[in-house]
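Moderator note: this is an archived Q&A kept for reference. The question asked for a predicted structure of one protein chain; the sequence and the answer are reproduced below.
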Amino acid sequence: MANKNNIAESSIQERMKQLVDAIGTKNSFGKAIGVNPSVIGNIVGRRLSKPSFELIEKIMRKFPDVNLEWLILGKGTIWKPEKSTTGKTQDQQAALINKTVKQEVKKQTEILEKLIESQKREINTLTSYIARLEKELQKYENPNSNSASNS
């Protein structure tokens, strides 16, 4: 029983989860390697699907500092021995996070700009309506003051 637990702890899915956590989120990791984030979720989530060769190849191309022997076989450490996490990998991670944040900020800015335009149109409509109501009110106020001055 304990042996099975050790195997489960060192499964490729668990190592994928460690890699995803080391680099960012399932979402940002999936986008970085060019796959739908749900593919990553299926591997590190409840389904525990095994990663395909194509997926491992994409990881290798995008993150060359990842130790594939560790990822596939569980031997060694997450990063290639000649590279440390303080070098290029952190720069890649920071660039990935920065790109993702910039995309999200751009998306939110576009949404806010559309909302502002909509609110400007609404303000203009209400301003026009108020002006019409004020004219209508003057029609009712002027006849009363005219009849009072005529008497």
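Archived answer notes: The two ends are 107 Å apart (CA to CA).
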